[in-house]
Amino acid sequence: MSTLPFRPDFNAVLSLCRVSNLPTVWMNVLTAAVLSGAVSNSAGNGPVSHSALLVVLLAFALSCFYCGGMALNDLCDLEHDRLHQRYRPIPAGRITAGHARAVTLALFACALACLLPVPHRAGLVAGVVLLFVIWVYDHFHKRHPSTVFAMAGARLLVYVVTAFALTGGISAVVGIAALVQAAYVLLLTVVARHEGHTAAGRYRWPVIPWMLAAMPLLDGFVLAMLAHPAWLLAGVVGMGLTRAGQRYVRGD
Questions:
Q1: What are the structural domain ranges in the chain?
Q2: At the fourth CATH level, which superfamily is domain 11-246?
Q3: How far apart are CA 195 and CA 199, in angstroms?
Q4: Where are the alpha helices (DSSP H) in 77-196?
Q5: How far apart are the C-alpha atoms of 114 and 54, rounded to whole Å?
Q6: Would you say the pTM of this structure is higher than 0.85?
Q7: CA distance 187 to 191
Q8: Model confidence pLDDT, tens digit, residues 155-176
Q9: What are phi and psi of 120, to 5 degrees?
Q10: Do 103 and 90 form a contact (C-beta atoms < 8 A)?
Q11: Per-residue pLDDT tens for 201-242?
Q12: In 5-121, which residue ranges form alpha helices assigned H by DSSP?
């Protein structure tokens, strides 16, 4: 009697990739695009349309990098999760390690492929660097506390990839936004690591989910100061989308 092949639950894939956090990535890309002048400096239907499509393409590419990084993180942490976080998709049996590897490879391949048609090849080079930093963090973060800087660096590279892909370089204001967000991610990572050392292993209040959701808001404040106050609304929307997504898919 033949048995049907195992098919992963689609919700398990969403959980594996922590898709609820994607609005934070989208806001990073939007911030870098606005501060690079790729959004505000366009004029006319043609350039506006072209720039908008390019920003959407970059948001999709960096979403794939993020989701691939999260999936790789679960693969690298599998033995730890089997003991301490059995609700994660792989130890819970909702998806096999083999399927998770396939998802990871497909996401990274798609991310790099999306960077091929961008106007400046520097964006693709920065994407390869981002992929390397993600690999370093996922493979070594349980053994080397200093890899918190790799996590912050990966988030900083979201801005770098976007700016390089759009303009071939990075302006001072994009650098400021990237450093502010990287510093925040560094703080978030330290707070998240401390959570595991609390008596219950969890904070009584959802500190990490709220800190994750606040990432777009931080970008909104930066844009409000460096570009136009109206951009703060985009940060508020990004925070709301992240919190709404966390109701269905855990982001921590």
A1: 11-246
A2: UbiA prenyltransferase (1.10.357.140)
A3: 9
A4: 78-84, 97-115, 122-140, 148-167, 172-195
A5: 10
A6: yes
A7: 6
A8: 999 999 999 999 999 999 999 9
A9: -120, 125
A10: no
A11: 566 778 889 999 999 999 999 999 999 999 999 999 999 999
A12: 10-17, 22-36, 45-76, 78-84, 97-115
